Fold:
Amino acid sequence: MAIKLRDLKTEARTLARAKQYAAALAAHDHMLAVNPLDNDSRRKIADLLLALGDRAAAADVYRAVAMHDVRSGHLLPGIVGCKVLESLGGKVDDIVTIMAATYSHEAPSLAKFAARQSPVDLDAQIAPVPANAGGDPGAVARRAHDRACDLAAFVQYPEQFLPVPFFSELPREVFPAAIQSLRLVRAVDGEVVIRQGQLGTAFYFVATGEVRVVARAGHNKAVERGRLHEGSLFGEMALVTEQARTASVQVVGEADLLEVDRAAIGRLCAEVPILNERLDRFARERLLKNLLATSPLFKPFDHQQQMELLKRFEPRSRAGDGDHPRGRGRSGTVRHPAGRGGDPEQGPERP
Structure:
């Protein structure tokens, strides 16, 4: 009897947590056989091969999938693969070089519109894993390794890519240092990444998996604000100020997150001073977009009108308001486009 792909992935995750690695590997091998476009299963196969102690086979898969992710428009999962591969003693210079050439500031391959592979339908029906699929762990491992490294289903890579927040603000020559400064967080179900009320000193990208944003409102009741997936950014107001987090972020199932702390940003800006200006603009745009999304003042406007309003905000410095994210002794604020004096109401940080 067929089951949903989502449920089979949950079953495989449960097997892996119970350290039944061969059975979990057989499940992901089965899912990849049915759907060769399921890159999530490719990454899980690499993780499971590593859990089984086959570092060489795992490294093969991490390298193949990381290169594929970067070339197919999925920079963040590609970075995860590189970070794990480095931890195994692997070389990733060639992959990072392609990242820099493809996604850095003003790279010719960046465009406002670009095609991307549609995500796998997790509600699709799939046959259950055959009962004898995990009978020979060695055979399962070899088969899963070969299947995960086989990218023949992808006949052509795109020529244009969407800019990636933060990363596409980086000059090409800074990319290797930026990748090196990231901290990979491999989090499990229920793990709290940031907690409401704590001071913000870093922000995060969701590279793979899912997290949920939860805030405590009246009577200390927890309210879920939403869920974030690959490519989402949260905690970004740590770029601007060390204000207290306005919500908590908790992992759903499992997730790979990339952490960027203020110290890393300081080092990058010291190396390339022009990056200060780009990151100022990036932080200001994030703040204003959050403002447009949360303030009742802007609800009457449609998305296009909000984007036009966004262009009319101007930066203003005000001494003594706190530390600037790069330590220049000021804090960035914004001036209302109509020039009425005073800052517009600032909506809450996306946690």
